[in-house]
Every structure is written in structure tokens, then in C-alpha cells.
Recover the amino acids of this structure.
């Protein structure tokens, strides 16, 4: 009898063990099934690739010969598309928007003023005396949409001297226009810019800063936020400014954004953690920024060169099918030629702008290549049926005047200076 009871207990333990094993197996099967079948509905606990690997992917993509636009350039029209696809030609009467990336001291102020003052179009921009912003509407009496996104048309709505990261990567341009004009239009963006010899550009910026400019109102937005004071310290006391700074002191500040400005303003800074320089060694960061700037330069619809204003005007007019009423080279002025630079200082300037020097050399080659391609294509200048003597209408909004919107002469003698502050007249409203 004792042996039978003992056997029953053993059999019971056996069945309990079997049941427990089955339960464990079922639980493991359910867990593994959830892991394999629920990938589409559950967020992974960590990215598949490391941050360095993802940066490597971005770098390899930007190094590719046939640049494939990323998500933020899908609605942008490149030079290649404009030249090859006639359907990609700029149409001022449609939903196309010309966007200008204004890099400091590259003749951008002159070019932007030409766009609003000296462009022969059916519906000229309306400019008001003593106001810096003009209204540039599309042709058509009832069309209130803008065809130009620039400092003198929409104003600094994406930030003072907003760069490519702020304008395109963050989609600020599209966001602003959708808020202002509605989201029903499928706009095509034609990004443009101007470049300049890096050494003379740097010296010109120094002279501008020594006269009192700071560009402190710039936002430098990247990945949804501005840089922290730790990421981007100031080279001067903001209560005092940097007026009268020597070239040696200007050059010695490691946080001076004048160095390699063209590369930084054309690159996608999200690829290098924006202004946080602690997460990547400098050599790798510089390589990614330079290749990103080159890729984005290739994706621009047009870029001009300050040293070749006539060629730049020729290219712009034929590429966009528009015509200026004046010669751009006659308007542009420069103040950097009288700066005395010692050989030692010149060496340091070249070292500080090594990326810009390489980018500009690339830009020169690409510019010549584009010129030759356009000459082979034989693109004509499209002259509007109604050619106006002036590209802009100047009006007087003075309350003392009885006449509303009286035509006024333009002030052709004003100095081509690049102010570094916001003004109410530059708001897009």
C-alpha cells in the first residue's frame, strides 16, 4: 500500500513537470512570435544601425556621382532637370518659387535687389519707399501668390541669413508659404545662391564686422532648435559688439562662423549633429560637411559667382527664361580690396577656410561645365510680350501724399550694404 501511494505521488510530480514544461514552451513560442510578427506595429528598442554607420550611409550617398535628392529636396528642381526636362523650366505664372540662399558677402544683396528691381516681367514687384520688402506677385490681376522667396520679397522669415539647413532641410520655406497662401498648391522650389572667392569673401566679412555688423539675430536652427551657448559661444561681448576688431583677433576666435561660411551654409548640418562638435572628430565632420555642401551645390537650380557676374547673369537669364534690364556687373560694389594682409595672416586665413577653398574650386569647375552644357543646348532668352522699362514699381506710402501708390524714382546711388538686423519693413505679412 505504501509503495502504491508513493508511486501516485511520483506520477503526480511527473504530470506537474510536464504541464510546467508545456506552459513554458507555449509562453516562449508566444514571445518569439510576437517578436517576429509584431515588428511592423511595435517600435524597436534601438536603431538597427549605430549613429556612425548612419553617418557613413549619408556620406556615401553624398559621394555618389548621381546625387539622389533626399526627402527635403524632392520638391526642389535641380539644374540638370531644368536643362534636360523642358517641363521643369521655371514658370513664374504657375506654382514655381525661386528661393535665394543668401550667404554673407557674396554679392547676394546686389542679386536680390536686381530680382525685385531690374527683372523685366509682366507684373513687376511693388516696392515702397523707405521699406525694404517688396511685394512680388505672380502675373494675373487676382493672383496674390508670391514667386520669389528672398530677403526683399518675403523678408527674413526663416531667420536672418537662413542657411540651407534652415530653409530646405527644416522645410521652413514650404511651411511659411503654406501658412501664408494655403496648402492646396503643389509648389516647385528653385533654390539659388551666389558664391565668392573664399579669401576675399572672408576679408570682406571681417571689414563688415569691424564696421559694426554682428548678425546676432541669426537663429542657426538645426534639428528643431538653435545651438546652445556651449555649442556656439560668442566671440565678443554682445553689449559692446565687435566694432573695430583687428583682423588678427577676428581670425583667432575658434567659434567665428566667418570661417568656411559657404560650406556650412550649403551643407546639411543635421548630418554632423548640427553645432555640437563633441560627438565627431573634426576630420570626419569636415569631410561630411564638405561633401554635403558639394551635393547640395549640384542640386541648386542656379548659383552665380561674384568674380564672374556677366557669366552668372547670362546663365540665369537663359536658364530661367527671364531678362534683367541692367547689367549686374555694373551694380555690384566691393570694399575688401584695400585691406592690408601680411603673409602670416594670409596663411592663417587660408587654413581657416580650407573647406571653402576646396568647395569654391569645385564650384568653378561645375560652373564652367554648366556654361558649356548651356551653350551646346543654345537656350534662348525669353523676352516677355510686355517689356517694362523698370522691373519694379516704387510707391510712396507717406500719409501726407494725396496720391496713393505714386510712381517714384529709384535711388541708384545707395551703398550696397548688408544690414544685420530685422526691421518691421522686412516682415512677411
Amino acid at each position: 500500500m505504501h509503495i502504491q501511494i508513493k508511486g501516485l505521488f511520483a506520477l503526480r510530480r511527473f504530470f506537474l513537470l510536464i504541464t510546467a514544461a508545456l506552459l513554458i514552451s507555449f509562453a516562449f513560442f508566444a514571445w518569439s512570435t510576437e517578436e517576429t510578427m509584431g515588428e511592423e506595429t511595435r517600435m524597436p528598442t534601438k536603431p538597427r544601425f549605430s549613429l556612425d554607420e548612419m553617418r557613413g550611409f549619408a556620406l556615401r550617398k553624398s559621394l555618389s556621382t548621381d546625387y539622389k535628392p533626399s526627402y527635403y529636396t524632392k520638391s526642389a528642381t535641380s539644374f540638370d532637370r531644368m536643362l534636360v526636362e523642358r517641363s521643369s523650366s521655371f514658370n513664374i505664372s504657375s506654382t514655381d518659387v525661386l528661393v535665394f540662399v543668401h550667404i554673407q558677402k557674396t554679392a547676394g544683396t546686389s542679386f536680390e535687389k536686381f530680382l525685385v528691381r531690374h527683372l523685366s516681367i509682366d507684373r513687376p514687384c511693388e516696392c515702397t519707399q523707405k521699406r525694404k520688402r517688396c511685394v512680388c506677385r505672380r502675373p494675373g490681376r487676382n493672383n496674390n501668390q508670391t514667386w520669389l522667396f528672398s530677403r526683399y520679397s518675403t523678408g527674413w522669415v526663416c531667420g536672418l541669413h537662413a542657411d540651407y539647413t534652415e530653409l530646405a532641410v527644416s522645410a521652413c520655406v514650404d511651411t511659411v508659404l503654406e501658412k501664408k497662401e494655403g496648402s492646396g498648391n503643389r509648389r516647385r522650389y528653385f533654390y539659388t545662391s551666389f558664391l565668392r572667392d573664399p579669401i576675399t569673401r572672408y576679408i570682406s566679412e571681417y571689414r563688415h564686422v569691424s564696421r559694426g555688423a554682428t548678425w546676432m539675430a541669426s537663429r542657426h536652427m538645426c534639428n528643431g532648435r538653435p545651438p546652445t551657448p556651449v555649442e556656439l559661444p560668442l566671440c565678443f561681448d554682445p553689449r559692446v559688439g565687435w566694432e573695430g576688431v583687428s583682423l588678427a583677433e577676428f581670425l583667432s576666435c575658434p567659434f567665428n562662423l566667418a570661417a568656411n561660411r559657404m560650406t556650412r551654409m550649403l551643407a546639411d548640418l543635421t548630418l554632423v549633429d548640427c553645432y555640437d562638435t563633441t560627438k565627431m572628430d573634426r576630420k570626419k565632420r569636415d569631410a561630411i560637411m564638405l561633401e554635403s555642401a558639394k551635393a547640395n551645390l549640384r542640386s541648386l537650380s542656379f548659383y552665380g559667382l561674384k568674380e564672374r557676374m556677366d557669366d552668372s547673369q547670362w546663365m540665369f537669364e537663359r536658364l530661367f527664361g527671364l531678362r534683367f534690364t541692367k547689367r549686374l556687373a555694373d551694380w555690384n560694389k566691393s570694399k575688401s580690396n584695400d585691406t592690408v594682409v601680411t603673409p602670416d595672416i594670409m596663411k592663417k586665413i587660408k587654413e581657416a577656410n580650407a573647406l571653402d577653398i576646396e568647395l569654391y574650386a569645385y564650384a568653378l569647375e561645375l560652373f564652367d561645365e554648366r556654361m558649356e552644357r548651356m551653350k551646346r543646348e543654345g537656350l534662348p532668352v525669353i523676352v516677355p510680350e510686355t517689356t517694362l522699362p523698370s522691373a519694379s514699381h516704387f510707391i510712396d506710402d507717406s500719409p501726407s501724399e494725396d496720391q496713393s501708390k505714386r510712381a517714384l524714382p529709384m535711388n541708384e546711388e545707395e551703398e550696397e550694404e548688408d544690414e544685420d538686423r530685422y526691421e518691421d519693413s522686412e516682415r512677411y505679412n
